[in-house]
């Protein structure tokens, strides 16, 4: 985890907190305030839109949580080792190109002490 205890995906955390705050603000305003404009009550609109914003904040929380999961390199190689097939080759090619272009915490570099991918098992 990064220093400060917020994890690596601060943008997703910010999105989740922003949507939670806006949703709860709209929800509570719709419940407790008497909002009338030209004789029409807008409390229901705020209640529903606040509930939708709080629900959408779950997307940010899921992104933040999954972005902070850590896998050991040997477990990653065992579960997602080199598999055959055209789709798997295409996915690896796209992933390698994307990883080379992305500097920063998302780019996966070589792990110290590793000796390459695990040997393939033949059945």
Automatic annotation (TrEMBL):
The chain crosses the membrane at residues 12-33, 45-64. Residues 96-123 are annotated as: Disordered. Keywords: Membrane, Transmembrane, Transmembrane helix. It comes from the Eukaryota. The keyword Transmembrane applies. It comes from Mauremys mutica. Signal peptide: none annotated. It holds the Pfam family TMEM238. This is Transmembrane protein 238. PANTHER family: SI:CH211-232M10.4-RELATED, TRANSMEMBRANE PROTEIN 238.
